[in-house]
Amino acid sequence: MSSNTSNAALAEWVASVAKLTEPDNIQWCTGSDAENQQLTELLLESGDFKPLNPQTHPNSYLHLSDPEDVARVEHLTFICTPDEADAGPNNNWMTPAAAHAKIDALYRGAMRGRTMYVIPYCMGPIDSPLSRCGVEITDSAYVVANMRIMTRMGAPALARIEREGTFVKGLHSIGDLSPERRFIMHFPEELSIKSIGSGYGGNALLGEKCHALRIASYQARTEGWLAEHMLILGLESPAGEIHYVAAAFPSACGKTNLAMLIPPESYKGWKIWTVGDDICWMRPGSDGRLWAINPEAGFFGVVPGTSEQTNPNALSMLYQDTIFTNVATTEDNQPWWEGLDDRTPAKDWQGRDYDPANGPAAHPNSRFTVSSKRCPSYTDKAEAPQGVPISAIIFGGRRERLVPLVFEAKSWAHGVLVGAAMASETTAAATGAVGLVRRDPMAMQPFCGYNFADYWEHWLSFADKADNLPGIFHVNWFRKDANDGFMWPGFGDNMRVLEWIVERCQGLVSATETAVGYLPRPADLNIDGLELPIEQLEALLEVDQQGWLEEMDQIAAYLGTYGERLPEALKAELLLVKEQLARNLA
Ligand code: OXD
Ligand code: MN
Q1: Closest approach atom of ligand 1 to CA 447
Q2: The Cα angle at residue 139 between residues 135 and 140, in degrees rounded to 5
Q3: Could you write out the DSSP letters of every residue in 45-81?
Q4: Residues near 342 by Cβ (< 8 Å), separated by ≥ 6?
Q5: How far apart are CA 232 and CA 388, in angstroms?
Q6: Which CATH superfamily, name and number, covers 298-374?
């Protein structure tokens, strides 16, 4: 074993996992083309990959998962710390000892008859000081194929690990895929992850949600940075000036679409650059600004709804070198999903002849895995070791009522409250009911590796760590009118809101002060070329004082569940908003 790496801890760990799981073979992944070829052939042979039409979608494959294994499983995801309070009410908790015992029993002999792959990977540009490395051990070739796209994996990552001497340990086995024997365990203090029983992205590609969010958020707190569930985009003006924006939205709320936005016709000379669509690591620079990298190297995006209208950039990258998971196929074996076009699919996501009586043809959480480099709006600034400087942070959710199109927080501390108070209607990205309003602070409810109260304290502490912090904003693209129709066109037209946000950050435009934050006056939003009745725009920018007072009561009740640990500064911000609402209503 020692011949594969000079890092003794890594060699020992791999040997101990092999002893426990008893694989037939061990394969150290180098990331070479030959290796990829070999794995692709293997996946085709086993049926885990089905070839798609090579004329229309060269080098692209379809994977149909177990129908019971199609999303993240939050109820089976645990943060394992000695003290329950460190995991917080936002996480399922187990002691490390109990968790290791439970999951190790399931790993025993689990890789018999299988190959164990060892994947060294780097989250972030290989030469960035902000990047962090890990090693995933898995018995799934599908996981290797995805990790190859989503991370910088193989020989260069191993070399960095050997140089630095530290890495996050991630052990994954698909086990028997039974939901009864499925667990996703995190040991933040050990910088390690153990996952069994699922092949689904968020449960199995351990560099992503498990490492880059849950473990990294914990690491970021001890080291003074932030690991966030945010896209990063660059907005370039006709003068060639670029402002970078990071935005947090809950899963399946359009982060990928926003990150790849194409400005409306009337925005001549404007351009949106994509740095990342899902995860953002930020750290204060010597200039007092926050500098961010995208730790991922690819997109693991929700497929349904992706079309020429909603996200032409995403659509164009999916014609080649893409892994599709749980989509439907057409007669001539092209991938197909709801919202793409008006063709009728031939087979559904379970490989059955398509029958509308069985529900959607593509699973609502079907996914594409594709390299960032395939995205036409991807910028090489995403590869810059120092990252990009962030001008604005945006929080957002899916809210049919109450929450205006956009508002700006009054201060950093108020912005932390705005993030902590985020709520959204649930989507298909996690198992469970869809469409219920749930609190999802900073879009991190499923991903924060420690007690949210401590996390907010950490966020608040940046006011002392950096003196040129980004402005904090909140947006809601999803307001509905009395007839249940969307009030804002969304997609490319979200550019209009981004422009206002970036102008605010430069002090170029004024705003109306309200109890909940600063709002644009209707005339401040550029609606050239948009057919939007002025009354509708006014309604989108209205602050319903009574409704907000009730909302603040709900937020207070939610934050109250964090008890003693809830930061005083957050309580004070909450009180300030409530008092002003009450004054306005008196
Ligand atoms: C994702 C998610 O997979 O947020 O990105 O669920
Ligand atoms: Mn996500």
Answers
A1: 4
A2: 95
A3: HHTSSEE--TTTSTT-EEE---TT-SSB-GGGEEEE-
A4: none
A5: 9
A6: Phosphoenolpyruvate Carboxykinase, domain 2 (2.170.8.10)
Give residue 427 CA to ligand 1 midpoint distance, Å. 10
Active-site annotation holder among 253, 280, 448, 505: 253
> What digits encode the pLDDT tens for the residues 77-87?
999 999 999 99
Closest ligand by atom to 248 CA:
2
Per-residue model confidence (pLDDT) at position 2: 44
> Ligand 1 centroid to 447 CA: how many Å?
10
Residue nearest to atom 2 of ligand 1 (CA): 251
Q: Which DSSP symbol is given to 524?
A: G
Decide: residue 386, CB within 10 A, 0-12 exposed, 13-18 middle, 19+ buried. middle
**Does 2-49+71-223 carry CATH code 3.40.50.150?**
no
Out of 70, 251, 299, 442, give the residue to mutate to test ligand 1, the one with the largest number of ligand atoms within 8 Å of its CB: 251
Intrachain domains 228-297+381-544 and 298-374 with the same fold: no
Ligand 2 centroid, distance to 531 Cα (angstroms): 32
**pLDDT for position 1:** 44
Residues 6+ apart with CB under 8 A from 197: 76, 106, 173, 174, 175, 176, 177, 178, 179, 181, 182, 183
In the chain, which stretches have pLDDT less than 70?
A: 1-3
Nearest CA to ligand 1 atom 1: 251
* The two three-digit tokens of residue 548, written as one number: 């907000």
Phi, psi of 539 (to 5 degrees): -65, -35
Domain ranges of the chain: 2-49+71-223, 228-297+381-544, 298-374
Which residue minimizes the CA distance to atom 3 of ligand 1? Answer: 202
Atom of ligand 1 nearest to the CA of 367: 3
Ligand 2: distance of its center to the CA of 228 in Å?
Answer: 10
Q: What is the position in ligand 1's atom list of the atom closest to the CA of 72? A: 6
Minimal-distance CA residue to ligand 1 atom 4? 251
Burial 53-71 (b: 16+ CB within 10 A, else e): eeeebeebbbbbbeeebbb
**Is residue 253 flagged as an active site residue?**
yes
Q: pLDDT, tens digit, for every residue of 487-529?
A: 999 999 999 999 999 999 999 999 999 999 999 999 999 999 9
CATH class in words for 228-297+381-544: alpha beta
Q: Three-class SS string for 383-452?
A: HCCCCEEEEEEEEECCCCCCCCCEEECCCHHHHHHHHHCCEEECCCCECCCCCCEEECHHHCCCCCCCCH
- Read off the DSSP letter of residue 261: -
Q: Which of 22, 58, 520, 533 is nearest to 335 (CA)?
A: 58
Q: Which pTM does this prediction carry?
A: 0.97
Exposure string for 453-480, b = 16+ CB within 10 A, e = fewer: bbbbbbbbebeeebeebbbbbbbbbbbe
Query: Of 351, 307, 354, whose CA–CA distance to 325 is shortest?
Result: 351
Distance from the alpha carbon of residue 165 to the mean position of ligand 2, in angstroms = 29
Radius of gyration of the chain from Cα atoms?
A: 23
| CA pair distance 348, 141, nearest whole angstrom | 24
| Ligand 1 site, CB within 6 A | 72, 201-202, 251, 278, 300, 429
